Amino acid sequence: MLLIIDLKPHKILKSLEFLQNPWTFFGIKFAPILMPIEDRICTVVIYIWTHTILFLALFTTIVMIYMLILTKYWWVALAYCGWVLYDKDTMNKGGRSGWVRERMRNWVFWKYFVRYFPIRLVKTANLETNKNYVIGSHPHGICSAGAFGAFGTEGAGFGAKYPGISPYLHTLDMNCLGPLHREWILGLGCCSSSKKSISHVLSRPGGAASVLVVGGASESIYSEEGRLRLVLKNRKGFVKLAMRHGADLVPSFSFGETGIYSQVSNSTGSFLSIVQESVKQLTGVVPCLFKGRGFFQYSFGLMPLTNPITVVVGHPIKVTKNENPTNEAIDALHLSYMEELNQLYEAHKSKYGQKHINIEFV
Fold it and tell me: What torsion do the CA atoms of 52, 54, 58, 63 make, to the nearest 10 degrees?
């Protein structure tokens, strides 16, 4: 008797179809065993990015201390410390520039980063190259992945959509000081969120955009599905700086940002919220108890979930230069910004978000 085996590709794929779908074991949802190689690469990229953000600075600091005290390579650690001190002010001068910034922003690594979620950048108006801008990014979420992908890299094609405009994503000083961690942050052109740093960017002759995640660490504790709270009511410093430099204000909203992690409930007055507020007062960072996914499974872990993020950039609000603006003028422009941001959100929430959710300004 002859045994006939059908080796047609579509037959083989159909027989292996069960390996191409997620599967559950003891309540844990695992990733498919067979999946496209590009999806695997995206997962590896996000794994590297997540663990770099969370652990690189801490790990390299421990290694540097160990080298300095307990090994014969103390001079390497000492030399690097000297370099950091010498180079410290780069974080207040727009980060790295020239070919370093250009090459790092265009790494293929970031294409896979953006593809993972995926992140999409939506343009609604032109930005003139003879003007400078302050782009407000909302919401912060847990890790501001949308703002990072859209403005901190060329993964979403910012340069192609806004030719002649150079974005500078501002972040906490601690991100610009950690050993090795600072090198890739500054290399992308990211820089400090200090007043000195923002003023340096806005002092350029034109074509520069300071990108600020306005809600900051305080807003991360409000990251949740089904409700949208933005820390903005009393955030007026960016408006004052925009007025002093005559930089137009541009609101942007990252739809889907709050869907890449879930967070343990931290209602006002709870033990967790009190601890978070205390730590924030001491360090400037809010510890969040969040849950994402792992490398091989979707049920828990530190990696963000695959949830589409659409970053919509609004129309610029014209700002007249005023080096000494009054509080009334700042309040009026701040109110105009909040109204423009709300209009931007309302105009696009049905397409990219959830139409029944409204912004709550806190």
Answer: -30
